[in-house]
Amino acid sequence: SEGAIHAVNYQLQVKANSFKGLVLTGTPGRTVGDVARSQVFSQIKNLPDAKTQLKLYDEAIADFLANRPLTHEVSLPDGTIKIIVLSLWAPANLPFSRELWNYSLPEHLAKVGEPVLVVIGKKDIQIDWKIDGSELEKATAGKTTVSFVYPENANHVLKHEIKPREKLNAQSATLRYNSPNTQLDQATIDAIFNWLKQQAQK
Asked: Which of 29, 32, 123, 151 is the most exposed place for a label (fewest CB within 10 A)?
């Protein structure tokens, strides 16, 4: 998903050796910050203090975006939220992380003139094919060079996922990303190769 951002930025800024086309997978249609917040919420929503944790997270992110010092570190619960917040403030990640957090891909994707295929699996729990896909489609409406495909059983890394999306969670989904008994989703492979063949014939 972050790779899609870098690929589009490269395409828009490079002076030579641009790509002839782009295949973007797990592509965010919201800002990186909005995607991250939805992922955090999905992981803590069933906890008894979920509302309090999310409030602390929002306060910490507000300070981060306003370039204020981190003052909520002690209050943040150990786990995913604290790891995310501390990584954002890590000196090695600044100022890139602040710029990335506010980055919205749709407005940049709309400026790409070369053919683009956007692939978001319906079993992707990091990027939502309905929410993110609709924002990307809206931004590129009328551009015949941009195509979309939403494979029924592909996860975030385009592996075949047999479980219904509603039964997936962050832990179970990510464990299967590199599991030895998983394989690439065939419908996704076919869609990408068909698109490539179509471009080669133009």
From this structure: 32
